[in-house]
Amino acid sequence: MSKKGRPRSPVTQKSILDASYGLLLENGFDDITIEKIAERAGVSKATIYKWWPNKAAVVMDGFFSAAADRLPIPDTGSVYEDVLIHATNLARFMVSPDGKSIKELIGQGQLDSTLKEAIQTHYIQPRRSEAMQLLERGVRSGELNAGLNLALGVDLLYGPMFYRMLVTSGSLDDEGVKDIVMTAFNGLKAGVDKPSV
């Protein structure tokens, strides 16, 4: 989140975000400092602090800026196909050399509350919001159950991907993602009766 004041210069902002992302890929989060970002971007530390409250915020903005172009929201007319494309693109990004940085950041976030909040705000919540939009579209079209809990649906679809990435080191190839999405959709699609309690 930026602080109030003079509007950001798009050129200066891009140079700062590119610098923070480049440093993240090269050296990891721990080694990044505001001084190093400022030096690489050719700006003062004051300029960075004017727009971001701390290192975690600017690094996550840099990461999100790089990730956003690779994760467009599809609209094929089929919610299943849209979610499959979205989930596959997310998995491909997460296992790429660039995307593996998110694994480090999530791990570091368990020890750094500021970083954890930045990850939630700049990466996790935007991804969840996109996925919920896809599921909401499916509810409106009648492909998914009308009473679907959207947040829980997102957890069922995307949670296994993060579990595999962070815990089991299981496969996140295209077929693995397709299996996850198909299995989850069998319980989410319209016409599936909920079990009686």
TrEMBL record:
DNA-binding region: 33-52
Domain HTH tetR-type stretches: 10-70
Signal sequence extent: none
Highest taxon in the source lineage: Bacteria
InterPro entries linked to this entry: Homeodomain-like_sf, HTH-type_TetR-like_transc_reg, HTH_TetR, Tet_transcr_reg_TetR-rel_C_sf, TetR_C
Listed Pfam families: TetR_C_11, TetR_N
Keyword set, alphabetical order: DNA-binding, Transcription, Transcription regulation
Recorded GO MF terms: DNA-binding transcription factor activity; transcription cis-regulatory region binding
Protein known as: TetR family transcriptional regulator
Record organism: Paenibacillus sacheonensis
